Amino acid sequence: MQRVLQRQSNILKETFRLFNNQESINTEKRQIKQREELQRSQVFPLSNKNASLFTGNVSAQRQFKFEMAKDLYAKGYKIKTISKHLNANIKSIRKYVNLEVLPSQVVSHGLTNFDMYRAYLIENNRPGVTYKDLYHNIVRDGFNGKYTSFCDRMNRLMTANNSLYMNGTADQWPVKLPTMKTWSTTKLAFMALGDTEKLKPDDKKFLEFLYQSSSVIRATAELAIQFKKLFLVKQIGSLDHRLQNALKPNSGFKGFARGIESDYEAVNQAVISNVSNGPVEGQVNKLKTIKRNMYGRASFDLLKIMVLGNT
Description:
With 311 residues, this protein is mostly helical. It has 3 domains: 60-172, no CATH class; 185-272, no CATH class; 283-309, no CATH class. It has helices at 2-7, 9-20, 25-40, 60-74, 79-86, 90-97, 118-124, 131-140, 147-160, 162-167, 185-193, 201-213, 215-228, 230-233, 238-246, 254-262, 264-272, 278-293, 300-309. Helix 2 packs antiparallel against helix 3 (25-40) and helix 4 packs antiparallel against helix 5 (79-86). This is Transposase.
């Protein structure tokens, strides 16, 4: 289930935006459906919007926060405000706004990491705050340069941004942003496969919203729940029915279904049979635990007493 959600990262990111911005729901919902129709024609829909901004296997949640942080910072919002809005660590947001791609590039050991703190320094350089105060703050946060080089870089930074400070007024500050909510693919998978009645109100509301926005994710979740219930139903032919649904062209469980087909007889027997080796495995694990506790001093007679004494 989690892998299917990861392959639908574009849809997840758009759904995060829709869920946190109900005013544009009708327009953006149509855009999600168009992307979904395009992805249905692909075997592995792994392409990402703004792919040039990311390197490696970046989750939809981190991609979303990275894009939003850069966009909001470009509009004039402060680092602290963006951090609260995206419900993210302030250090992560400070790093995001200074990066061209995610994750960050490796910095040479011969250079200082001054650029990591540019946003923080611009934001906190105000009347009454000295360079020494700023320097001590970023040193505690990991700055690796000397005070003289810091002052030199700081002077150049303030000269370049002087017009920003001279022209800013109180009326130009952006409106206050609400806290934005996101969910990891791991948590979404647990939410989809668990009891919806036990979910928190926000989790349940988002899950319903996600199902409305993406029929692919909804169908995948329903199929996963059907497989989960196989061992409770114990009906002959129930596995065949699930496999037929899982092998459909648009299914996200085709690889899983092929794996079951490769050892069909054993899996089917486990599904329909009332006999289980679970109790035997439990007793074996119990015996191993007792033996580990008595390592180096256990004779068979003592082991027998310990096993029977714990029954």
